[in-house]
Design goal:
12 strands; about 15% strand; alpha/beta; four-stranded parallel sheet; about 325 residues; six-stranded mixed sheet
């Protein structure tokens, strides 16, 4: 598609969300896309903390040219508040069912009721990541506890049941590198899950902290596995990154400011299996760090063929979460 034509179509999409006029409370992106820019969907992020912080999410999305964000709540922000916020920006915020809760961590039987209540709210369009191996976050103070829940645990299967019912991709959080001696057991049970539910898509956060060799093996073995490239840049991999909250050994898909040759080749060979997402969690993520990540990815995907870049930046998220296409 001619670049100028694509830009016109993109502007038309944003206007189309409002029938040509902005609804009350709706904000159009203020980021002016250049002819070569590609619209972005953030396939997984979380609210900064308070409901009052949510307007900052939209402001930063506008500034970075992120058209949609699949967003889950945490902390004091309730499901109803998230849905209320999303309703002010139709088509921009896709509410995701919250899974992170003490009911999950404590193996409390009330976890299923907690999930079901959200799933029954029609405005939800996704389910947030389900923690399986999650190292403690916080080098100076504990901000998130360690979680060890195997892929065949009943809590995982309960969440999977509801994701399958709604035909949502099942987003998995396993830090394979950080799991250390538990890595092989987690991989064995995760692959058993992939095999048992071969017709359902599984999405692995942060590339699973895997290298390109392990990712290639999984891609070639399973048709139902996908990877979100969150926290997998040279910015995140830096040991002096301002927002690092743990000493996790992150996957780095970059060589400096460019995609490394191995990852670029994998994305070209399997364009339908990689998804762009940022997984902003803490307030400091929702700032210059976020804009720097967007800028880095925007430049990197210019190194890919246009169809591969579009598929990664927004196409795969549209297909998997059944979102209206941006082109």
């Amino acid at each position: 598609m001619h670049r100028f034509s694509f830009l016109i179509l993109f502007i038309g999409f944003i206007s189309g969300c409002t029938g040509g006029e902005a609804r009350r409370g709706e904000v159009k992106p203020t980021h002016v896309l250049n002819a070569g820019d590609i619209p972005i969907i953030d396939a997984h992020s979380q609210v900064p903390h308070r409901y009052e912080d949510l307007d900052e999410v939209i402001r930063l999305m506008d500034q970075g040219g992120v058209v949609r964000t699949i967003l889950s709540s945490k902390g004091p922000v309730t499901a109803k508040q998230l849905v209320s916020f999303a309703s002010k920006y139709p088509g921009r915020i896709i509410p995701a069912v919250r899974t992170k809760h003490r009911f999950y961590q404590e193996n409390d039987e009330r976890f299923e009721k907690f999930l079901k209540k959200q799933v029954n709210i029609p405005q939800f369009g996704a389910m947030a990541e389900v923690l399986m191996y999650h190292a403690q976050k916080g080098l100076r103070r504990v901000r998130a506890p360690q979680v060890i829940v195997y892929p065949d645990d009943e809590r995982v299967l309960v969440a999977l049941k509801y994701a399958m019912k709604k035909k949502w991709p099942f987003v998995v959080h396993i830090e394979f590198r950080r799991a250390g001696p538990l890595r092989d057991e987690f991989m064995k049970r995760f692959e058993a899950l992939l095999t048992r539910y071969r017709k359902h898509p599984f999405v692995l956060m942060h590339m699973g902290q895997l290298d390109h060799i392990a990712v290639r093996r999984l891609l070639e073995a399973y048709d139902n596995i996908y990877f979100i490239a969150s926290h997998s840049t040279s910015i995140e991999a830096s040991p002096i990154a301002a927002v690092r909250e743990s000493d996790d050994p992150r996957t780095n898909m970059f060589d400096g400011d460019h995609l490394s040759g191995e990852w670029k080749q994998l994305m070209i060979e399997h364009p339908d299996r990689f998804i762009l997402g940022f997984d902003n969690v803490w307030p400091e993520h929702w700032g210059q760090y976020y804009l720097d990540q967007i800028k880095l990815w925007r430049e990197a995907i210019k190194e890919l063929q246009p169809e591969v870049a579009h598929t990664f930046a927004h196409g795969n998220a549209e297909r998997l979460w059944r979102l209206p296409p941006l082109k």
